[in-house]
Amino acid sequence: MSLGTPLHPRTAPLNRKLQWREWSGWWAASAYADAHDIEYNAIREAAALIDVTPLFKYRVSGPDAPRLVDRVITRDASKLSVGQVFYTPWCDEHGKVIDDGTVHRIAESEFLWTAADPQQRWLTLNARGLDVSIEDVTEALAAIALQGPLSRAVLEAATGTSFADLRFFRRRDAMLAGIPVGVSRTGYTGDLGYEVWIPADRATEAWDALASAGAAYGIRPAGMLALDVVRLEAGLVLLEVDYTSARHALNPEQNYSPYELAMGRLVDLDKAPFVGQLALRREAARGGPARRLVGVALDWYGIEGLYSAQDLPPAISPAVSRAAAPVFAPGVLRGDRQIGKVTSLGWSPILKEAIGLASVPASYEAAGSKLSVEWTVEGRRGRVAATVVPLPFLDLPRKRA
Q1: What's the number of CA atoms in the CB half-sphere (13 Å) around residue 255?
Q2: Can you give the pLDDT at residue 330?
Q3: Gap between the Cα atoms of 399 and 241, Å rounded
Q4: In CATH, 290-397 is 2.40.30.110
Q5: Is the terminal CB of the chain with fewer CB neighbours within 10 Å at N or C?
Q6: pLDDT value at position 335?
Q7: What is the mean pLDDT of the chain?
Q8: So what's the architecture of 8-55+139-222 in CATH?
């Protein structure tokens, strides 16, 4: 049975249409407003509060904590300084991604680890022989994502402290309404934003402080539907949608290496030994994997044509589709072999086009490559021309400013 997060006393009254979904055993709001585009606009034009407490969170500490982190993640943990945050995948012994998340270095021998899936067992297995403590703090630590171009102004108003010096993927401690919190310059929106890490028993006080300070800036609560749109625009992958965890894969096709997920830049093959390193070295030596994750932009006139053929006006759902759609080489006849799939597909309100993440053969990885994507109208399948474009789709300078 799903439970309310520590922020549920505040989020529940705001969820007027009772649009809830389950997220790792917790209730998460799909949308608070009548339409989630209002919340999307808050993220892109003002500021928004998102309850991200359901993320799995672990405190890794002890003399050998740095060794454990370096043993598990694909990035070089020796380069992770105190007050810095890494976004990183981690792999099994075959070099296939188990999960991706963030690792915060709190102190020389203390880290906060976040993940989409439970990782206690995996971390414990890899800690054998090390002097390290792994504590699951998921229920003890609430988290609020404060995102949007005005998020810094809201945070400064709520804390009475300047955050102009907190750089992208850095973190520090702060006081929020008398509550000791951690603040990281991170998020899942591709926009200027912060994540606030709060003792669970004081989560509602922190929400109230941010909501009160944000009232003058047009702040709104935002749910998962709006978050899905902005993370797609940012080209960010979602576990069990854009890839399957190696832990859950039922066949080889469901296993993905970091190089198959556009995460090659997050792999350091020359660092100290880590789980999956040998397999990834072999994959790189072969010239990389046979498939790659790319961004695709769909041709609007092709979409319009499929609807016009049935005397219907064009229509695209404002919500991101998580159902895989077949991808074909351009110009092939119906019935020819599928070459890949779109994993996330949606309409970008700011880019004014249909965009998607697609897994395709390496020969189609280059920007400008032409593809076609299956599109169904009233049960009738058709194909729409698509072009491979660089990721992220939307790269806002203020995200790093």
Answers
A1: 14
A2: 84
A3: 25
A4: yes
A5: N
A6: 52
A7: 97
A8: 2-Layer Sandwich (3.30)
Spell out the domain ranges in the chain.
Answer: 8-55+139-222, 57-137+264-284, 290-397
Whether the upstream peptide bond of residue 392 has omega within 30° of 0, thus cis, is yes
Cα 4 to the chain's mean position, in Å? 22
| pLDDT tens sequence across 175-228 | 999 999 999 999 999 999 999 999 999 999 999 999 999 999 999 999 999 999
Please name which of 148, 146, 153 lies closest in space to residue 182, comparing C-alpha atoms.
146
Cα–Cα distance, 298 to 165 (Å, whole number): 39
> Is-contact 133 187, C-beta < 8 A?
no
Alpha-carbon 56 to chain mean position: 14
Residue 334 has pLDDT above 60, yes or no: no
Question: Is 59 a residue whose pLDDT tops 60?
Answer: yes
Whether the CB-CB separation of 60 and 113 falls below 8 Å is answered with yes
Q: Comparing 8-55+139-222 with 290-397, is the CATH topology the same?
A: no
CB 371, CB 357: distance < 8 Å: no
Class of 57-137+264-284 in CATH: alpha beta
* pLDDT tens by residue, 295-325: 999 999 999 999 999 999 999 999 999 999 9
Q: How many CB atoms lie within 10 A of CB 362?
A: 15
